[in-house]
Amino acid sequence: MLIVADENIPLLDSFFSDFGDIRRVSGRELSPDQVRDADVLLVRSVTQVNRGLLEGSRVRFVGTTTIGTDHVDQFWLESQGIHFCAAPGCNANSVVEYVLAVASLHASRRGLSNWARQSVGIVGAGNVGGLLAQRLERLGFTVVLCDPPRQQAQFDGLDEPSATEFSSLEQALECDLVTLHTPLTREGEHRTYHLLGAQELATLRPDQLLINSGRGEVINNADLLARLQQPDAPTVVLDVWENEPNIDPQLLQQVWLGTPHIAGYSLEGKVHGTETIYRALSRFLGLPVRKQAGQYLPQPPLSKLAFTSNAGDDAIQQALHNCYDPRRDDARLRLSMAGDEQQRAQAFDRLRKEYPVRRECSSLKIQLKGSSKSMGEQFRSLGFKVNI
Ligand SMILES: NC(=O)C1=CN([C@@H]2O[C@H](COP(=O)(O)OP(=O)(O)OC[C@H]3O[C@@H](n4cnc5c(N)ncnc54)[C@H](O)[C@@H]3O)[C@@H](O)[C@H]2O)C=CC1
Ligand SMILES: O=C(O)C(=O)[C@H](O)COP(=O)(O)O
């Protein structure tokens, strides 16, 4: 069996070499010729998987080690009887930690003494948005969820009956922090392409923070640039951009923090993505599942942080920054944006390819001296290991 795989998928040999030969390719530049004689195609978000790529090939199974599926023409694959599998939720925790780190830095920057007094509008309450809502609520934030497809499903009795209350996009956009976690969809009643355009962006106030770590095209980037050039602009953080890797350098200059689509790039998130597709391929081939992510995730050297009883929110915020500080990724991106358009695009992809190992909050052990039990619970709810 021949497996053609994006060279940026981690642990390809560990998980897939028992199935057959692996041909590593550049996902961004994959051509029909490179995949024609393959049985299995494994991709990340940068490969457009469609008729143009696969017509006439031998491929019977396509796996993407990502949550997002907007790069895959699933309708065409199905019409050809090609099995498709994605990795829902694989890096959701990584994205949640990214958003919490950003929110915490923003609070420090604004000198907010109690960051949880803020309201957070979450647009898209699926694996990422739902997990984020849980964490924020435990920390005491007021959370407003906007998810019209789930709201509709709840109304139709199709979604799990729960106490979840959904709000409109307008209500979410009134919150102190607004964070986008929808898939990119271009059709249908709830399509998200340019969900935020000039009209929606005009409603945002200068004291608000808007974060996009879903897909770039969910915000009209030209309208966003125009809005950011106004004196009453909100603060904006972008992990995802229209036209990646050709991002708009002017837009990067205007946002507070800009990162190269790495919100989901914790080591845990990446390895879980590979594991999910390994499992799916094993099932597809009728073979036993023998490997799991835990075998290949090196135990992180547990760093320790100590806090005393009077440490309030500061302690949680410090711990979050200690674990992951998005300002480093922002600085790397800004430094790499010299040169012409092609050089900038290559630099964007290089930052992603050579991304340093990032571990999640579970790699940090918090030592609390004389602190309350509830403080310990808050740390635990964020995934930290806690000693009281
Ligand atoms: N920046 C990064 O590194 C990463 C980005 N992502 C992006 O985040 C997206 C969300 O991930 P998950 O939460 O795991 O997906 P999910 O499929 O579990 O949840 C998405 C939610 O968005 C809702 N939704 C759809 N259309 C909507 C609309 N018009 N308005 C409001 N809500 C809407 C859906 O009903 C669903 O509940 C992915 O599709 C992917 O594009 C995911 C992982 C990493
Ligand atoms: O999982 C997703 O969806 C993502 O956006 C990925 O984290 C993006 O990573 P690449 O597939 O582009 O490496």
Q: Can you give keywords for this protein?
A:
about 400 residues; alpha/beta; Rossmann fold; Ribosomal Protein S8, Chain: A, domain 1; 3 domains; six-stranded parallel sheet; five-stranded parallel sheet; 17 helices; binds 1,4-dihydronicotinamide adenine dinucleotide; binds the ligand O=C(O)C(=O)[C@H](O)COP(=O)(O)O; EC 1.1.1.290; hydroxypyruvate reductase [NAD(P)H] activity
Model description:
This protein has 388 residues and is an alpha/beta fold. The protein folds into 3 domains: 2-86 and 266-295, 3-Layer(aba) Sandwich (Rossmann fold); 91-223, Rossmann fold (3-Layer(aba) Sandwich); 304-386, Ribosomal Protein S8, Chain: A, domain 1 (2-Layer Sandwich), CATH 3.30.1370. 38% of the residues lie in helices and 15% in strands. The chain has helices spanning 12-16, 32-35, 51-54, 74-79, 92-110, 127-139, 148-155, 169-172, 198-202, 221-228, 249-254, 267-285, 293-296, 313-323, 326-335, 341-353, 373-381; strands spanning 2-6, 21-25, 40-43, 61-64, 83-85, 119-123, 142-146, 177-180, 209-212, 235-238, 257-258, 303-308, 364-369, 385-387. α5 packs across α6. The chain is globular and about 60 Å long.
